[in-house]
């Protein structure tokens, strides 16, 4: 599969990507995040979700991200964020630093999820929460407009995303308990094709040019008739470090 350079994608991510509706509220409630909490987002990208957690709660927020351009875009948020270079499998924080370790749409880039989970487990305080937000097979097959107009992305995503049961198994092996899954869903009206034309979703960089062009043409044709009902679905997979 073609490797992606996220330094090249950072500008489009910052331009088009926003926190997923309902996700930040779910995170804050489930993990009990307050102004006294310390939160780590691993693979934070442009840090939309981390900044929203900071804005909502006042928690101390640290983001780890390997891409220099993604960190540069993340630093544009008005919220105070501690942004650092690093990789998920190489987390090296003192034992018991964080109340919450989270990642959003990142786990499919991690070659050794168990190693990442073990590092995250060690970095959490006893009783601390771990969250990875990913996509299930069902969600990938039923993305609108993605699966409808760019069906080649389905197999691309199946090749990238680990099955949720496998991730849950690795969480248990790492020592996490209280495993919990929740699908975060929302619908919206799509009025224009710009974010798809700009390939602000990484999977669009991994399909053929002809498939992409055909999808854009069909999407534009349907949008010319009126807005399209679209959806956003993400699976929140939680674990907790025992007390």
From TrEMBL:
Q: InterPro entries attached here? A: SAM-dependent_MTases_sf
Q: Which Pfam families match?
A: Methyltransf_23 (PF13489)
Q: Name one GO biological process term.
A: methylation
Please provide the record's keywords in A-Z order. Methyltransferase, Transferase
User: Organism's domain of life?
Assistant: Bacteria
Q: Which GO terms describe its molecular function?
A: methyltransferase activity
Q: Which Gene3D superfamilies does the annotation name?
A: Vaccinia Virus protein VP39
CDD domains found in the cross-reference section: AdoMet_MTases (cd02440)
* Protein known as: Methyltransferase family protein
Organism placement in taxonomy: Bacteria, Bacillati, Actinomycetota, Actinomycetes, Pseudonocardiales
